[in-house]
Write the structure tokens for this entry.
Amino acid sequence: MEVKKEKKGRELIVVWFSCGAASAVAAKLTVDKYGETHNILIVNNPIKEEDPDNIRFKNDVVKWIGKEIIEAKNKDYPNASIVEIFEKRKYMSGIAGAPCTMLLKKEARYQFELTHKIDWHVLGFTVNEMHRHERFVKGERANTIPVLIDAGYTKTMCFDELVLAGIKLPAMYDNYANANCPGCVKATSPSYWNTVRRVHPEVFESRAEQSYRFGVKLVRYKGKRIFLRDLPKNAKGGKIQTYECGIFCDNY
């Protein structure tokens, strides 16, 4: 694998890689299109509680795009643990969003920006997510290149691109709509949480115990918020949505 050094005088593009399919393809397109004219960094905000297979996927993507993926962490949370943040904040999710997103994704990016003069940002917004791109440009950073949108990529096309490249999708996609941490505290669907209970029972028990101690009712069942420990095992309601976790994360 050839790793090119940064050249002076070139603009810097940072691709924010989330270990998801869309951001992987966005990284590949960016390197292919701008690699000869710009300095490019692929940056990941690691999370301790992510599925271990995300690391395998990241390593496969490194080989595919021919560039290392570096990490950006919040210096105040070097362990990058969402459980640790929940304990320290005694807060998991609510109207103000999720502290894990703010501290381990957004704040980590803000700190990275203090030491890197970023001319352009690239995120994994697909054509299905034009509204999210527009919201990010308006509320966060206007200097964003929508590489996937410009190329007409949907999420399905991103999946297909990786399959054609011989890269297996992260194991999280086998049961969820994304490669985020299992047991995402922004999710409220009974279907989602019962999937977590079935596929990641230890995570479900951890979220149920912690949220009960904090008085946080994470799941919505029959129109009411309830504790995870009170969720019937056969409860369904609301399809499992894509709770994208990153610097562009929506709050659900």
